[in-house]
Design goal:
CATH architecture of the largest domain: 3-Layer(aba) Sandwich
CATH topology of the largest domain: Rossmann fold
Number of strands: 17
Strand content: 15-25%
Structural class: alpha/beta
Number of domains: 4
Helix content: 40-55%
Largest sheet: 5 strands, parallel
Order of helices and strands: EHEHEHEHEHEEHHHEEEHHEHEEHEEHEE
Number of helices: 13
CATH superfamily of the largest domain: Response regulator
Radius of gyration: 39 Å
Oligomer: single chain
Length: 478
Amino acid sequence: MVLPDTGSSSDTIHILHLDDDPSITELTNSFLERESEAFDIVTENDTQRALDRVETENIDCIVSDYDMPGMDGLSFLDAVREVSPEVPFILFTGKGSEEIASEAISRGVTDYIQKEANPDQYTVLANRIQNAVSQYRAEREVERRSEWYSRILEHSSDYVLIVDSHGQVSYVSPAIERVMGYTPEEVVGANSFQYIHPDYHEDAVNSFLRTVENPDEEVTVEYQSIAKDGSVRWLEVRGSSFLDDPLINGVMVNIRDITERKEREQEIKRQNEQLDQFVSVASHDLQNPLNVAAGHVELAREECTSEHLDTVAQAHERMSELIDELLDLARAGKQVQKTEPVDLATLIGECWRNVETAEASLVVETGLTIQADPSRLRQLVENLFRNAVEHAGTDVTVTVGELQDEQGFYVTDDGPGIPEEDRERVFEGGYSSVEDGTGFGLSIVKQVASAHDWEVDLVEGDASGARFEITGVELVEN
């Protein structure tokens, strides 16, 4: 993690030296510059001009005399503190007394050095400047980091709780107000379990106890919580125990609002249930009358011979084929709810046996195991095989292999391929380049891929045939 730059050099130390005697500032600066190349010194002999520099320039340390006309060193200190409360201020004066030193310290001077007729005093002054600036910069960096993290926590879509071993909240980040409506002041000191929906209270407590008892384990749980306005929010909660860490001394809980995701899942579930109902009705209410009609055609053939009956039988067969394809298309569009490891080579062999492939050949060049819905994956693969046989000929060679640059696999053939201008259209429902095709096969392939959150692309194969690449696949280590 890289914090934003402050814009100032950490090597150069910008010093403002104020003394009403120019000979003193010149001598002092000469010695200081000999002590360190990092010192960049500007001098002033007038307090107002010096104060103007403090207001307009980047000053890391002020070295000031005490006894000056118009405004003494302590009055100048007071004026500086109104402009820059934290900048190091060293009183470097020839007028020394315990009274002045005590007053200087009480009014916030960083250091107090009495001038002497000894060149070693400049070494002492240089060391005091470096130490004061180092501490000043370190404190500013801590404040900056603290402010940076606070801004992130305040505007994050997640919020953080720290609770003790009994679930009492000792800290909560400001983002809780945006997510749940509670201010941090309302939550700190309360028991965290009081905000959990009663239906999930027991699960939340058990997960918390598991977190406390297993400090090396991060425990994740989803439950409903009650917001300040009474609404119910779905939360994803990840807890880790830092009870043995003296800095945190509690269980750190990262909380994400997943209400919208849960609502989408519920909507998808509802749509799938409606789709299942539609598929069931369509299968029953369309196929049954069609079967009756086909049966009567056969009975009519026993009584008479007519080419019209052959035409009707072909129409019935075509209708049955379209119904099957449409039902497959409806099922293919359902979002995948559950996946499992699937041995791709084994499934490919099963799919090849389920398709009328005539003289076609299959080459399998993959040992992948992928995470998928087996039934839906069969739909995808079988439709790609049918597409190859229908469009490339009954003696086509189909190859299935794994992609090298991306996670996924490909199905390619050595047929004539598909013109580049038609490669997007082939996935449209009802589009077909052969006279007796339904046009739904590749649409089903696209739907099944989308239901798995995969991508399917049609490119030119190595043998100029059609090559379908399925990417975004989750691989399972063998």
